[in-house]
Each structure stands twice: as structure tokens, then as C-alpha cells.
Design brief:
Blueprint (H helix, E strand, L loop, with lengths): L35 H6 L55 H21 L3 H4 L7 H13 L5 E4 L2 E7 L10 E9 L2 E5 L2 E6 L2 E14 L2 E9 L1
Antiparallel strand pairs: 1-4, 2-3, 3-6, 4-5, 6-7
Length: 224
């Protein structure tokens, strides 16, 4: 089970750096040409020879790239900034052994996203309402991001994933995941609350997932 800290009743405070996207409007230049007859009427003092046409070169405008927000991990000095939201791979949307295994890896990537941002909603969207481990995770984020506090460390590393892809009597499929987790660090403005132990040795967790409406949902998560 993921390490957690006692839950606080204060709503979660999420601090995620926002990347501003600059919209660039490119305007094309216009060009013109001289009139040979008008030049002839001006006499020999004209800079352009008779019968020739002058034109202005069109400058090709160059779009300025939008600034890219730089990801910064959490430290004792402040929370993580500009944390990218993991994107579900197409494979994780398939009802297959490979799809379930890909979904499990994606599920843990959202665990890490939650630890870095305090935002449980992406994980909640792909987890069942009765998942007790999920509820503990939500509580740990609420506690860790209480008021102006934040979390660091906590990274869950997936070492191995395996599913026999056998339908259970409840209509779900099971997948085993071997994971490790870094120590959980808790900070506030000018405060170091001290760490909670992670899981330096590999442990195995089981996810029981159901497939409905073309997507997976983690119904049950538990230690083996």
C-alpha cells in the first residue's frame, strides 16, 4: 500500500504551474510593381531604366515559438512546477492482456502525478468508487497539500507488470505489478515536517480492473 500521512479536514490546495501559450498572428507582406510608362514620362532622371519594372521584395515573417514551461521537481524550497499530465497510451484503451498491462502502468503514472501536484482527479477518473487503496491515496494528498504544504519524493517505480488475462467470476481481470517507492517528504513554507518511509524493497500489488465503455477502471487495488 502507498505510504500515507494522517488526513486533514482542510480541502486540498493544488499548486500546479501553468504554461502560457502565446498565440502568434502571422501577417503576409504585400508586393507592388512599377509602371514602365510612368517611368518613361519621368525622363532620364528615373532610377529605373525605361521599360523595366521595379518590385519590393516580400519579407517572409517568422513565427515566434511559444515559450515552453519548464518542469521543476519539488524540493524543500517549493512544490513541483509545470508537471506534465501523463497521456494514456492507445494500447491502454484495448481490452486485451497487453492493454490491461499498459493500463496498470498508466495508473501508477497518475499516482506519481498526484504526489507531485496534489491533484487526485485524473486517477479518480479511472478508478472505482470502492477502491480502498485509492481512498487512502486521496487522503494522503489532502493531508500533504493542506494549506500551503506540499510533497516531494514519493516516486513510485514500476519494475514489472504481468497479467494472465483470465476473466474472474465478478467479470473483472487481474494484473500484478511489482513496484518500489521513494521516501515521502513533507514540506511547508520554511518547514520540513520530515519524511515517511517509502518501500525500498520491491513489493507486489494487484489491480483488479473492469472494462466498460471502451475503457479500463481499477476496481480493486491491494498488496499481495
Amino acid at each position: 500500500m502507498f505510504r500515507t500521512r494522517a488526513c486533514s479536514a482542510v480541502p486540498v490546495s493544488v499548486r500546479v504551474g501553468a504554461a502560457g501559450l502565446a498565440a502568434v498572428l502571422v501577417l503576409g507582406g504585400c508586393s507592388g510593381s512599377g509602371n514602365p510608362e510612368a517611368e518613361a514620362a519621368q525622363g532620364s532622371s528615373s532610377a529605373s531604366p525605361r521599360g523595366s519594372a521595379s518590385s519590393e521584395e516580400t519579407a517572409t515573417p517568422t513565427a515566434t515559438p511559444a515559450p515552453t514551461a519548464v518542469y521543476k521537481p519539488a524540493t524543500a524550497a517549493g512544490p513541483a512546477e509545470n508537471v506534465p499530465l501523463p497521456v494514456m497510451p492507445e494500447l491502454a484503451k484495448q481490452e486485451s492482456k497487453e492493454g490491461l498491462e499498459a493500463f496498470a502502468e498508466y495508473w501508477y503514472s497518475l499516482i506519481n502525478y498526484g504526489y507531485e501536484t496534489g491533484d487526485p482527479e485524473p486517477l479518480r477518473a479511472i478508478s472505482g468508487p470502492d477502491c480502498s487503496v485509492c481512498k487512502h491515496f486521496y487522503s494522503s494528498l489532502e493531508s500533504g497539500y493542506d494549506d500551503q504544504d506540499w510533497m516531494a519524493g514519493s516516486v513510485v517505480t514500476v519494475r514489472d507488470v504481468h497479467s494472465d488475462f483470465i476473466l474472474t467470476p465478478s467479470g473483472s481481470y487481474q494484473v500484478l505489478i511489482q513496484i518500489m517507492q521513494d521516501d515521502l517528504e513533507y514540506y511547508g513554507p520554511g518547514i520540513d515536517y520530515g519524511p515517511s518511509d517509502g518501500t525500498p524493497s520491491p513489493i507486489v500489488q494487484l489491480i483488479e480492473a473492469s472494462y466498460k465503455n471502451n475503457c479500463w477502471s481499477a476496481v480493486l487495488v491491494e498488496n499481495i
